[in-house]
Write a structure and sequence with these properties.
The structure is a single chain. A four-stranded antiparallel sheet has the order 3-1-9-10, covered by helices on one side. The protein has a four-stranded antiparallel sheet with strand order 2-7-6-5, covered by helices on one side. It is α+β, with helices and mostly antiparallel strands. The longest helix is centred in the middle third of the chain and has 16 residues. The chain has four helices and ten strands; from the N terminus they run βαββαβββαβαβββ.
């Protein structure tokens, strides 16, 4: 059974390429598995393993749910460390709150509930993951990371994708199963 999730892909432009390269330099002595530049996204909902017949139902509901939505212009808010600051497992960037992004997340929760899945119990923190921490060698590197100021550039979200996630030794490989474009503002 495929592992699937809904996400908002972030276009891999020169800004993200530069940000990822700078992060790799900053964390050069740390044990981190970096995401592929083509895999940067904001996760809306992770289903886990799902049967193909259920995926077909999810796609039918998604076609109705996400119809007529507009592109979103987001701004970065701050660098983040998950699971906790002192024991990070993920490094990334959080986005500033945006009404349209919150609305898409609410629609996603309604969609997954309508096809029989439980909504996540975690708060929705819109972010992109840049890397997964395997081992912390120097906590000071992480302390310095979270003090960075975000650049003031717009980040455009122009589609919603249902991805299949295939776990590989070098990291997850994401393949689109379904997508819809968000209309221009």
């Amino acid at each position: 059974m495929p592992r699937i999730f809904f996400a908002l892909p972030v276009e891999p432009d020169t800004y993200w390429q530069s940000l990822l390269q700078e992060s790799k330099k900053q964390f050069k002595d740390e044990a981190i598995t970096w995401v592929s530049i083509n895999g940067i996204h904001i996760t809306l909902y992770f289903f886990g393993e799902v049967e193909m017949s259920v995926i077909e139902k999810i796609i039918q509901e998604a076609q109705k749910t996400y119809n007529g939505l507009s592109c979103i212009e987001l701004k970065l808010l701050k660098p983040v460390l998950f699971t906790s600051h002192r024991k990070p497992s993920i490094i990334g960037w959080q986005f500033a709150p945006h009404a349209a992004l919150i609305q898409i997340h609410k629609l996603t929760v309604q969609l997954v509930t309508s096809v029989g899945f439980m909504p996540s119990t975690q708060n929705f923190v819109p972010h992109v993951t840049l890397g997964r921490v395997k081992k912390v060698n120097a906590m000071k590197t992480y302390d310095n990371y979270i003090t960075q100021q975000p650049p003031d550039i717009p980040i455009y979200i122009n589609k919603i994708v249902l991805y299949k996630s295939t776990l590989m030794p070098q990291g997850a490989l994401y393949s689109p199963l379904w997508e819809t474009s968000l209309s221009k503002i």
